[in-house]
Specification:
The protein is mostly beta strands.
Length: 84
Amino acid sequence: MNEWINVSDRLPDIIDDEGWSDEVLILTNIGAAVVVSYNEAGYWDAFAHDFQTLSESVAYWTPVPPAPKVKKAWPLEKDQETLK
């Protein structure tokens, strides 16, 4: 399991030429948890939602864990019939 990292200790690594990190899960000091990317300009972004104004409220972050491996995609065709 990933550990929470205090933003005063370390920020996410920048991984591309445009100055962005991988997606990380943040926890703000007001209790919000959001998956975002960090930009070397100093702001957090979730898709088109700019969290520059909330940057001071981001308290911790952690890498997003990889998705679980599944054997079958759901819903299967036969399961779709029960959903109707």
